[in-house]
Design brief:
With 358 residues, the chain is mainly α. The chain has one domain. Helix 7 packs across helix 9, helix 8 packs antiparallel against helix 9 and helix 13 runs antiparallel to helix 15. It is globular and about 70 Å long.
Length: 358
């Protein structure tokens, strides 16, 4: 149980690190020129469509392709590559592929669009607590699609999460403006996709080793994002020429290594979540993982501000005080969805009575 909780908490921390390094990668070199809307490398400035959608698909694809490579390396280290190929052909393997379709091209790209919009508004960390609504949305979707129980403590937790999200989003709009609101809307779409993924993934992850499961998910997501969604969006935006130019520029700079780092942390962000859920139960595992509502803004602040790697001030605030409070309150709501507080109180009470009787 203790090890399972440790894995689940570590997954949330890794998710925060993945978000922080991904934000950093998109603020350096040619990426900074792209988002600034200026000419780059002898080419004209990108259109608003390309900045919003094409770059998000490219960033998501790079991150998840590198994450998939890291995941395959972990399987190779544990001599599981043969099992990887065999599992893809099974029903649980196909379910993991479905999860990757929803959680990758749809949710991850939406998440990065939200992250980029909030970054343009000067507050990238603000969308992370909104994306953390996936736990609440997963509980609702589980009730709608799979008739899962939605009892009192889960309803209370969902309400707490929604109130906290309203505080974070409302404060963002008041202090930053429309770009932050756009980011929060796309973060909500990401939460919806990841919530659906969480519902569906339950069956597959029970029957698949967590290393193989994450390898299937990340490889599938990376391939779909980089080799399907990105080319389609690039063709819509500026044609095949623009697609080749963007990829060439991204790989020609040393900052591509930051995507390698973000992909490295994306791998345990998901695999530790799967492992933690299998060891301490999905409910408790999800509540510990949901702490990325705090860890995401925290590591953006550390990497972009305190360490000044991103060229921002050490006093750079990823969240305003009310938004930090909203993130913490959301963690409480996630905990209420996952675990009935009354059960914990009764369990502690029974333990004390047993000690007194002895």
């Amino acid at each position: 149980m203790v090890r399972g909780i440790a894995f689940a908490i570590a997954s949330g921390i890794c998710y925060g690190l993945y978000t922080g390094f991904l934000t950093l990668a998109e603020s350096q070199g040619v990426w900074a020129d792209w988002f600034a809307g200026v000419a780059w490398g002898g080419h004209p400035a990108l259109s608003a469509f390309a900045i919003t959608f094409v770059l998000a698909a490219l960033a998501a694809g790079l991150n998840d392709v590198f994450s998939g490579i890291w995941s395959l390396a972990a399987c190779a280290k544990n001599r599981q590559l043969g099992d990887f190929w065999k599992t893809i052909k099974t029903k649980p393997g196909r379910i993991m592929i479905l999860c990757a379709v929803v959680g990758g091209p749809l949710a991850t790209i939406a998440y990065i669009i939200g992250l980029n919009s909030a970054t343009a508004a000067g507050n990238p960390g603000v969308i992370v607590p909104i994306a953390a609504l996936n736990c609440a949305i997963g509980a609702i979707l589980g009730r709608v699609f799979f008739k899962q129980e939605l009892n009192g403590h889960k309803i209370i937790g969902i309400i707490i999460c929604l109130i906290a999200a309203a505080v974070v989003g409302g404060t963002s709009f008041a202090s930053v403006g429309g770009d932050a609101l756009l980011g929060c809307l796309f973060a909500f779409l990401a939460a919806f996709g990841w919530g659906f993924e969480g519902c569906v993934a339950g069956f597959g992850t029970i029957l698949i080793d967590y290393r193989i499961g994450i390898a299937i998910r990340q490889v599938t997501a990376g391939v779909l994002e980089l080799f399907v969604m990105f080319p389609i969006l690039a063709m819509v935006s500026g044609g095949a020429g623009q697609m080749v130019q963007l990829v060439g520029a991204a790989f020609s700079e040393p900052y591509i290594l930051i995507f390698v780092i973000s992909g490295f942390f994306a791998m345990p962000a998901y695999s530790f979540w799967y492992k933690g859920n299998s060891m301490c139960g999905a409910a408790l595992g999800m509540s510990c993982n949901g702490m990325y509502a705090f860890w995401g803004p925290f590591f953006i602040w550390v990497i972009m501000g305190l360490l000044n790697i991103g060229g921002l001030s050490a006093y750079y605030p990823p969240l305003a005080p009310m938004q930090w409070i909203g993130a913490i309150v959301m963690i409480i709501g996630i905990f209420c969805i996952a675990v009935n507080p009354l059960d914990l109180i009764r369990k502690n009470g029974n333990g004390k009575e047993a000690v007194n009787e002895q």
